[in-house]
Write a structure and sequence with these properties.
2 helices
């Protein structure tokens, strides 16, 4: 069956999968991926019970750095929308209220056939 997603979407999906794997290796468990509401979308929601944190992660994936680092693409408007989405998610999923919410960015850069990831905790 043909893959009808755009090249950009396929790259983003690969980056989100790699980001989720990075989080799991760091002791997080993935609560939800691609939470969507009328305000926007959160790529990954992950809990780390030992650290008492619920992380709302925006994943930015790039094949090139011509326009700067991936994290630089998360501007003030996007940050505001992500925070509002996280607040809504916490209202719906109040069983996670004992965890401290945190807004993270995970950068994934593909270069020369290799993937490089960086987890920016408390990014905004």
């Amino acid at each position: 069956m043909p893959d009808n997603r755009t090249s950009k979407r396929r790259t983003g999906d690969r980056g989100e999968t790699l980001a989720a794997e990075m989080l799991e290796k760091a002791g997080y468990y993935i609560v939800e991926r691609n939470f969507s509401c009328r305000i926007g979308e959160i790529d990954i929601i992950a809990a780390h019970p030992q650290d008492r944190v619920i992380a709302f992660a925006e994943v930015k994936t790039r094949n090139r750095l011509d326009y700067g680092l991936p994290c630089e693409a998360v501007g003030k408007d996007k940050q505001r929308k992500l925070k509002l989405c996280a607040q809504l998610w916490l209202k719906i999923n109040h069983c996670y209220s004992y965890l401290q919410p945190r807004m993270d960015i995970i950068e994934i850069i593909y270069k020369d056939g290799n993937a490089y990831g960086r987890h920016l905790k408390n990014a905004f």
